[in-house]
């Protein structure tokens, strides 16, 4: 035993523990032994949650598709009324509502009327969440054959749904779908980004891939003296003008059209933001984009990055389960850790100066970097 390296002994020990836990005889004993009974129950419940996860997501999808949360927000309703409004057989609506209650989305009051539970009310209140849930029907189809998906054999629909990632022309209807979905889901991202990062040292902020200007509008309201610039595809960028006009920001806002895949980044800003942009693209494309941002900024210019990220050495559910699979289905990008993004920024000539702890990692995580002053370094 002394000739076996310590690391190998640890791995052998871990393998032994796994084999013991996998033993049906051990499981049966542990389920009846008082000190381990709770662990067995919790692990069993966790495994069953994984097993039933698809059913849970379909319950959520059905509720949103039928618009039941909005119906219950208006007033409590009986099952028969919901069945009639949704054109669902009453017996099946009972099953749907009982499942929704089990998931803590609704509650049944005395007399049989259903109301929204706290979680269901939050579902209604989160901007863009219902739209994103409806959009998931594409992802579900892409994941239908999980073995083929992970082998890379699936021709995914998501790859066609987001054609902008290739930097090419976009149909006007596709561009509107993209812009609307991004704008509605941008509010929470903007809120958490503004809580995490300070924009007070910038005088002009250029939002690259800024869509219809939802993020810039939020930053502009928080920093009234900040000048705003937006850069996005020709079919997308003009949609920001009505938003800026309605917010009274046209006097301090500029809109530039182009593709950061093919065109240089506009100059004139002392800060650039990349909000939910990097994870859409490959490492090669991200490196090229960061190099363009570096070229567009003067020395000491600031780079703000905000997007969902992988947990890195400590994988976590939002980044390493949901966003990792979503970007894999897009076939162009990936969820990166804060360390990976920091390394890409450093390679591009930036100094990372802040990586604040995320408030809600399932919404976004942020990084602030500064272009190194070549005269000082």
Task: Give descriptors for this structure.
alpha/beta, Arc Repressor Mutant, subunit A, 2 domains, Rossmann fold, single chain, disordered N terminus, 377 residues
Question: Which fold name corresponds to the CATH topology of the largest domain?
Answer: Rossmann fold
Report, as a whole number of angstroms, the end-to-end distance: 52 Å
CATH class of the largest domain, named Alpha Beta
CATH architecture of the largest domain: 3-Layer(aba) Sandwich
> SS-based structural class?
alpha/beta
Shape annotation: globular
Strand order of the largest sheet: 5-4-3-6-7-9-8
H/I helix tally: 17
Cα-atom Rg, whole angstroms?
25 Å
SSE sequence, one letter per element: HHHHHHHEEHHHHHEHEHEEHEHHEE
Mean pLDDT: 88
- The portion of residues assigned to helices is 40-55%
In short:
The chain is an alpha/beta fold. It is 52% helix and 12% strand.
Structure overview:
- The structure is a single chain.
- The chain has 377 residues and is α/β, with parallel strands linked by helices.
- The protein folds into two domains: 73 residues, Orthogonal Bundle (Arc Repressor Mutant, subunit A), CATH 1.10.10; 226 residues, 3-Layer(aba) Sandwich (Rossmann fold).
- The chain has a seven-stranded mixed sheet, sandwiched between helices.
- Helix 4 packs across helix 9 and helix 12 runs parallel beside helix 13.
- The longest helix is centred in the middle third of the chain and has 25 residues.
- It is globular.
- 32% of the residues are buried.
């Amino acid at each position: 035993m002394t000739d076996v390296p310590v690391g190998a002994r640890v791995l052998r020990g871990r393998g032994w523990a796994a084999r013991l836990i996998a033993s049906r005889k051990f499981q049966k004993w542990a389920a009846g032994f008082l000190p381990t009974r709770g662990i067995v129950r919790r692990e069993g419940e966790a495994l069953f949650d994984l097993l039933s996860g698809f059913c849970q997501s379909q319950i959520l999808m059905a509720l949103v598709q039928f618009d039941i949360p909005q119906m219950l927000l208006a007033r409590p309703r009986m099952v028969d009324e919901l069945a009639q409004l949704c054109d669902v057989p009453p017996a099946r609506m009972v099953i749907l509502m009982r499942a929704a209650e089990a998931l803590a989305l609704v509650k049944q009051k005395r007399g049989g009327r259903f109301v929204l539970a706290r979680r269901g009310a939050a579902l209604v209140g989160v901007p863009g969440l219902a739209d994103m849930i409806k959009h998931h029907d594409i992802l579900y189809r892409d994941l239908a054959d999980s073995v083929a998906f992970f082998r890379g054999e699936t021709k995914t629909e998501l790859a066609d749904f987001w054609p902008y990632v290739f930097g090419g022309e976009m149909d006007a209807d596709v561009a509107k779908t993209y812009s609307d979905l991004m704008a509605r889901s941008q509010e929470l991202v903007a809120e958490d980004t503004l809580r995490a990062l300070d924009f007070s040292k910038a005088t002009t902020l250029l939002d690259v891939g800024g869509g219809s200007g939802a993020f810039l509008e939020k930053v502009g309201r928080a920093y009234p003296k900040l000048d705003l610039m937006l850069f996005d595809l020709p079919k997308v960028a003009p949609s920001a003008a009505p938003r800026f006009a309605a917010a009274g920001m046209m006097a301090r806002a500029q809109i530039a059209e182009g593709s950061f895949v093919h065109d240089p980044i506009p100059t004139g800003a002392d800060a650039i933001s990349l909000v939910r942009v990097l994870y859409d693209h490959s490492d090669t494309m991200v490196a090229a984009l960061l190099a363009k941002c570096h070229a567009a900024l003067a020395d000491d210019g600031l780079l703000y990055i905000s997007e969902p990220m992988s947990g890195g050495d400590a994988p976590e559910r939002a980044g390493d389960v949901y966003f990792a699979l979503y970007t894999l289905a897009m076939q162009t990008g990936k969820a990166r850790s804060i360390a990976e993004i920091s390394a890409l920024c450093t390679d591009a000539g930036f100094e990372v100066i802040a990586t604040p702890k995320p408030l809600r990692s399932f919404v976004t995580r942020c990084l602030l970097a500064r272009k190194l002053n070549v005269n000082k370094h």
